Amino acid sequence: MRADDGLRGDGGGGRAAAGPPQPQVYPLERAAEAIAAIENRTAKGKIVVKLR
Q1: What's the whole-model pTM score?
Q2: Within a 13 Å sphere around the CA of 51, how many CA atoms are in the beta-carbon half?
Q3: Residues 6+ apart with CB under 8 A from 44
C-alpha cells in the first residue's frame, strides 16, 4: 500500500480523468493547416473545417 492511497479521492491509478479530446476547428482559409495536422499526426482527436 502506498503512502498517498486514499488521499486523492479520484479512485486511484494516479491519473486524472481527462475525457475525450476536443475537436480542433479550422476555418476554411486554414484548411491546408488542418490537412497538415492530419498528415503529420499532430492532431489529437477530430479535425473540423468550418465552412461558414
Answers
A1: 0.60
A2: 0
A3: 21, 24
